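Summary for the funding panel

The consortium committed to producing paired sequence-structure records for every protein in the target list. Below we show the first two records in order, beginning with the earlier of the two.
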Amino acid sequence: MISTQYSAKKTFPRSSSSSVPLSLSPLSEKTHNMLGRFRNVLKEERKIANHPYRILDAPGLADDFYLSLIDWSKSNVIAVGLGPSVYLWSASQDLPRTRLCSLEDNGTQLVSSVSWSDNGARIAVGTGDGALHVWDTVTQKQVTILQHHKQRVGSLAWNGNVLASASRDHTIVLADLRIPPTYPIQTYRGHRQEVCGLKWSPDYTALASGGNDNRVNVWSYPASGPTTPMQSYLDHTAAVKAIAWSPHQHGLLATGGGTNDRYIRFWNTLTGQTVKAVNTGSQICNMVWSRFAPELLTTHGYTQHKLVLWKYPSMVPMAKMTGHDMRVLFCSTAPDGETVVTGAGDESLRFWHVFAQSRTGMQRRSSLDLLTAIR
């Protein structure tokens, strides 16, 4: 039989330079303290200001849910449709606003949508009578006019040289600006009322649309067969203007319903299944995903008039931002991916620091703070 004897437990003296018990770690107490402070920093939540850092007047900015009147280009220029005119502000230079164009104000020739091309060299301007004007902003000249719609064009989306336009006439038209503008290359018919939301997927192989018929359609591009949606989602109970594809999860689509719905709904467009639904308690006007983290910004109308930043997939609100006195109908993201501009029927543009490139970028000031010198 084997027996084992254990000697009495020995104790070791503490180092005179240490105030902590002996550890198996080879790191010194000083290093442990540094790592502890670093862990605490990582645990801190990003501080997000709940008020805008800049406000600009936008006289004549329409209070119309179905329009898209603000867009921020990759060349750092903001376009705003005000009545019959489109104005440009340079966010990288301390310059006054300039008027790109003025349409004849006859009651229908009002600007209903603006959208920059992917490279920021061209801008499309939709109008109340269904026309679509394309301008070269470098030469300040009009490139073409497209007459593919019978009623106002409320939403636009670029895919390289292909421009998608959505209209009150229930159609979505794709036009290739490299060919004569007489005929569209594709016309999608799948909505029964005005189409008010339009977004390309990150890989540009699918186009999502939302309408006043409460329907969300997903279209394949380029279409190889009949121009019918490859998927239709009918769960919303109000108009769908807010649409956003996730840049972090392939095929994940977020949509937001209007006043009688108020839900954010997430769809797996690869399987056609519903992922999640969240009641926000307010009309949803816009959605923007962060490029850097799974975070989703929504802007709201009736009855809260605020911005909410959500953490996905928990959908816990990270911040609620207020400042507008009316519905926050328009929203666009700066090229740095951190700042957003919003517009409302209170005839103001407001600038917010929302997203951050890293967790250590807390309270980081955006390089776009030159905007504080515009007015």
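The next record, for a separate protein in the list, is shown here:
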Amino acid sequence: MGCGCMIGSMLCLVALVAAALCTWRFGPWYDESTNTQGTPDLKALNTCDGCCNGLKSNCDLPVSDVTFAMVHNAQSSRANLFAAYNNLKPLEEALIAGYRGLMLDSCICDGSIGEKITNYFNGEGNTGENYLGFCHTSCDAGVRSPVKVLENIKTFLDVNTNEVLILEFEIIDNSLPELFAAIDDSGLDEYIYHSTSTDVEWPTMQSLIDANTRLLLFAHGDGIDSSCTEIDCPEGIYYTFDHFQQTNWNDDTCDVKGNEREGIGFFLMNHWKNNDADLPSQSNAEEFNTYNALMDRVKKCGDRIPNIIAVDFWDVGDVLPFVAEVNEKNVE
């Protein structure tokens, strides 16, 4: 009898904890459309007149010769109530601080338990309506509104006229048409750099700024899983691996993932290390994102310096000063 009461009490406790977690995770504050705080001040730090991404020496270089600090799974942050988050702070703060690249995952949220709970708290019932989100793996683990995110990216470009951004999308759930429509609706299309050929001769940073085409878009995944020479890519979006080579993640070598190819414009260093459960690790970032760790890994790349360095927990460590130093030495 006592054992049964104890088990019953434990089950009640588990149920209460689960309910509390659901309330925290999926309450009204979870829906970005209810945010009444307005658009944050997105004025960049460390910018200057006559600079290109913070340095005058970047301006005459092709964009493919400038090193960009990039946020991995930029939509996923503790601040935005993601489970197993990749970052502590939101992507908007990363842009302000000096990051000029964002990795974003697009997905379709389609009637999962998380959506049902969210709709319950919002008094909407179970609409069953699919919608585009920026998530990672599942909308239950966290999702950001593309309307808000793209609106804020556009505001950043509006306010900071000497800054060039790179967005790299992973397309999940065949969400490419919805993503393309969201980009078009956001007004970002006025900033997108377009080329008439997949064999791109990348312009200088100053040329992009002068033409006000300061946004480069790349994507891979569902619906864009092969070269743009083989499929019709949406206008202004390049297939990532037509133009990127990349290192592996979860290690500190500079080995190229896949086959090494000549003439590829961008070399992406995936610089994060998950924990033993293959989840994002702040403690690993505290080691990986230090100046010494970054320098040691870049040295292993030899003459091919990575021009995109993607990290988790972007505000941890020395990533931004390291990237600035790499760019300064690039013209010596």
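Regarding this second record: The CA atoms of residues 157 and 283 lie 33 Å apart. The longest helix spans residues 2-26.
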